[in-house]
Amino acid sequence: MARLILFGPPGAGKGTQAVSLAKDFNIPHVSTGDLFRAAISGKTPLGLQVQSYLDQGQLVPDQVVIDMVRERLAQMDTNGGWLLDGFPRTIPQAQTLEGLLQEMHQTCDRVLNLQVPEHVLVARMLSRGRKDDTESVIQDRLGVYHRETAPILDFYRTRNCLVDIDGDTTVERVTHRIKTALADLL
């Protein structure tokens, strides 16, 4: 059983590694982006809430995100573990997740922090060829990450569950480094 959080700046390779980890550990990959899309397409009450915020160009409030994560972690396929990707993004979300897991009598086994130098992140995102991946948009996203999301690292470091992974190499080498860091959970 493994309960993991995959963490890192935009362009660090979280999505790629999440797919591999979920398969290797036979646990569901819980991505907030996927939860949003599924709830919106399914026209669930939470999905309608999410859609209304997105339609107004607003961020989805923490409580709505947390309610979606709570709902997802209560599903049967998460009994053997889970991999969170894209959540938590702020200290309040991390604190609320910690309380939610306590309510559910669960803990997070590891927080994997993919570390990649900023110039490499920018080059990776520019090479993806997405129309919204311009230099200025990328710098804005990295700025938001450093201001709002990176402080979570200390939150988890004080709980002795944070593992830094050098992500400035090939996908295969990063995967190997992650598996080595999780060897006791395999």
CATH architecture descriptor text? 3-Layer(aba) Sandwich
Q: Write down the CATH topology.
A: Rossmann fold
Q: Trace the largest sheet across and list its strands.
A: 2-3-1-4-5
Kindly provide the name of the CATH class.
Answer: Alpha Beta
Mean pLDDT: 93
SSE sequence, one letter per element: EHEHHHEHEHHHEH
**What is the molecular shape?**
globular
* Main β sheet profile: 5 strands, parallel
How many H/I helical runs? 9
**Percentage of helical residues?**
40-55%
List the helices and strands and how they pair.
Elements lengths: L1 E6 L6 H12 L3 E3 H10 L3 H11 L6 H12 L7 E5 L5 H13 L6 E6 L2 H10 L7 H15 L2 H6 L4 E5 L4 H11 L5
Parallel strand pairs: 1-3, 1-4, 2-3, 4-5
Word description of this protein:
It is a single chain. By secondary structure, the protein is of the alpha/beta class. 28% of the residues are buried. The chain is globular and about 40 Å long. Helix 6 crosses helix 7. It has a single domain (2-30, 81-185), classed as Rossmann fold (3-Layer(aba) Sandwich). The protein contains 9 helices and 5 strands.
Looking at this protein, list some descriptive labels.
single chain, 186 residues, alpha/beta, Rossmann fold, 5-stranded parallel beta sheet, 54% helix
Give a short synopsis of this structure:
By secondary structure, this protein is of the alpha/beta class.
